[in-house]
Design brief:
77% helix; elongated; three-stranded parallel sheet; mainly alpha
Length: 180
Amino acid sequence: MKDKTIIIMRIVTILFAFHFSLFTAFAQEEAKAFKFGYLSYEQALKSVPQYAIMEKQLADLEAQYQAETKRVEDEFNRKYEDFLEGQREFPKTILQKRQTELQELMEKNIAFKEESRQQLASAKEEALAPLKALLSEAIATVAKEHRLAFVVNTDSNAYPFIDPEMGMDIYPLVTSLLQK
């Protein structure tokens, strides 16, 4: 009986070792098969053909806002200089009226600058949305074609090292797809 137990234990040990070696070999093969992609999202976004057009349109819009801001600042400065020149000669009620006008004009200018900033940010987001969608679609297409588990954005140096055996630079593939 003792010999049978030893034989059974040896058989179980051999089977366990066999299964363990198969599992280890399978795990190593799976690790080799596991691949991911990487690219600079910002660089890829700038490679979208419509990106340059969008930047030009935003620059034109910003120039319009800056021109209007300069115009209202010049108007304020002119009125302020007029106020300073005549403040000693104005009756008290005209002086207060002019001070109130200058205060209101300054508040409107500040509000306009803030609204301009918000409008520019909103216009940029609206213009970028379809480009980002196009880029995301291209990234997904390349990732599926090459059976990548995921794609990493390398912007801001978040990944100082990527093993080229496991990772794949998909930037050239994505930009090529975007140019079609």
